[in-house]
Amino acid sequence: MLICASATAIGGVSPISLRWYLATSEEIYDVPGIRHVHPNGTLQIFHIPPSSFSKLIHDNTYYCTAENPSGRIRSQDVHIKAVLREPYTVRVEDQKAMRGNVAVFKCIIPTSVEAYITVVSWEKDTMSINAEMRSRSSARSCTRVQAASHVT
């Protein structure tokens, strides 16, 4: 992940000073190898390993100001949320049901990635299951294909 947010101010009165702040109005500072504000006003957030994740830097709202002798203006908020590439496992919640009754299976997705994951299909023994397909045992059929699926 490399994020660059540019700030540009055009005005007839020089010099123009560009500064970045957190939503709390705290002026931000450079964190070597993690976050840097360039002299041209670009805010750069570098690629990081998961162990260096900081909510203060990588999941926060920033804004920029431009100031000259004529006054000061504030940008719109920019929300930055880092998404870390790390292994995760999706699993199916164990269920019990009597033969002939309905069992509801739920896809369990880790909370760290659930906002970015969509269940698009279900599989049984590496075979895709859809609403029209019956399983090989013909004792069960899938009636919905979603994050929660009903099997009879």
TrEMBL record:
Recorded coiled-coil stretches: none
InterPro entries noted in UniProt: Ig-like_dom, Ig-like_dom_sf, Ig-like_fold
Chain ranges of the Ig-like domain: 1-81
Protein's UniProt name: Down syndrome cell adhesion molecule
